[in-house]
Amino acid sequence: MTAATVTACSSGGTAQQDDSQPLEVWIRQDAGSPSAESAEALTKAFTKESGIEAKLVAVGVTDFETKLQQRTAQKNLPDIVINDTGQLGNLVTQGLVREVDRDGVAGSADLADRAWEAAQGYDGKYYGVPFNSQAFALLVRKDWREAVGADVPKTWDELTELAVKFTEDDPDGNGKNDTAGMVIPGSTTRGYLTWWFSTMLWSEGGDFVKEQGKGYASAIDEPASVEAVEKLQAMFCDSKVAQPGASTADSSATHTFFESGKGGIYLTGPYMLPRFDGSLGKDKYEVIAPPPGAGGEAVLAEGENVYMMAGSHNEKGQQEYAEFAASPAGQKIGLGVDNGGIIVRLPVNTTVDGAAERKDPRWETFQEVYNTSGRNAPALPNWSTIRQMSSEGLNGVVSVCSRDAGKAMGELAGELDAELEKQGAKGE
């Protein structure tokens, strides 16, 4: 992306305004899916409430970024994009999104501070309005845990011990050595391994990067980080509690493995509950908060923002859409209670009780994890690049068991520092 293109995308500032212009709204969902239906319901409710015409476009999950870049090249961005918080830095760097005045957003005080934090760029300014949040919890085969006579794990070490029992003690009682204690998406695709490992790393007191001066520096080669990586490597190479093919598995593969009845512990999001209730059975597994490690409690928090794209001819409509999406009415539609199309996993609006709306206390566990232990990825100019590089470095350690974790993380630290320098975020 050239600077000239960025300028053209944003029209050098504010495009000529016309409050009657319809809005084009993009969401990262597959067309025809229940989630797309919820987004359509949200958009129609907005039009009914505001009188502003809006058209939803459900853009496929796998080619969302590609299609957005195509529209960027055409200098014809959609008005609204609902997309991951992890994409914020990339969108800001390209000049594709407008700055948001947090205090000027109606109902902003009702939105969780942690959710607002995920809408904040490296420069401290806001570039999105929170819409959806989530944290991760452990789905554990309750019937297996009871079969091997184990208690609910209270630490990461106890969790690993439980994973060993699930791997070695025939928890399903079929007389075969065909179960895996830990289900891990270890692929480098979209940085999956970093995504999964973040909770473990932070809980053990390590980190990918740390604040240093007015910027950041790599922290993946520090003692606590290396120790966490060594424990990760052991899951693949020593105790071998990770499922077969874990180093190349993405989330679609791990979802299938867990629901097939071959995996015992799966760190994932609340959006999987409806699927696993149907495929595995609600009585077969339990939801527990990730336990603390040597560094305490810390769980990856993520979500989605409503991004008001640059160059829109209806900025007033953009803001009204974002405000409606974050309002109690918009959040309740997004919960997908009626149709199962979950586009709001945990409400960002603190006046909405998602667990009560769903009448399912398991969602409260996820909410409590988010509230008490949730931690957003750092607000770097481009976190997604750091995530990808980290995933590739970690994958090299778990794929080649002879690799020295400390040496490998030292090499990765140098790569991350070079990338931070490139992004203008290297602290002194």
Automatic annotation (TrEMBL):
<comment type="similarity">
    <text>Belongs to the bacterial solute-binding protein 1 family.</text>
</comment>
<keyword id="KW-0813">Transport</keyword>
<keyword id="KW-0732">Signal</keyword>
<protein>
    <submittedName>
        <fullName>ABC transporter substrate-binding protein</fullName>
    </submittedName>
</protein>
<dbReference type="InterPro" id="IPR006059">
    <property type="entry name" value="SBP"/>
</dbReference>
<feature type="region of interest" description="Disordered">
    <location>
        <begin position="1"/>
        <end position="20"/>
    </location>
</feature>
<dbReference type="Pfam" id="PF01547">
    <property type="entry name" value="SBP_bac_1"/>
</dbReference>
